[in-house]
Write a structure and sequence with these properties.
By secondary structure, the chain is mostly beta strands. It has one domain (about 20-70). It has one helix spanning about 10-15; strands at about 25, 35, 50, 60, 70. Strands 1-5-4 form a three-stranded mixed sheet, with no helix packed on it. A hairpin with a 6-residue loop joins strand 4 and strand 5 (about 70). The chain is globular, with a radius of gyration of 15 Å. The termini are far apart.
């Protein structure tokens, strides 16, 4: 029988965003270009990096995790 062993969690890991979680991110033009997953996400089980164009429509949705990005006025 195979046993799964938990690895210790560091303080840095506890502050990471949950990968592939449905989220709404409000961003400004100074944050552009926008990519998903966002910096700070736990990438070990996330999706490939995608750059999202939200300049014209003011919003975009990630095709992998459905996270929504809304361009806020500065």
């Amino acid at each position: 029988m195979h046993e799964a062993h938990a690895t210790p969690t560091t303080a840095k890991q506890e502050k990471l965003a949950i990968p592939n979680a449905e989220c709404l991110y409000k961003v400004t033009r100074s944050d552009l270009p926008i990519r998903c997953p966002m910096p700070g996400a736990s990438l070990w089980d996330s999706h490939p990096r995608v750059f999202l164009a939200l300049e014209k429509a003011g919003r975009a949705k990630c095709p992998y995790c459905s996270a929504e990005y809304l361009l806020s006025p500065e």
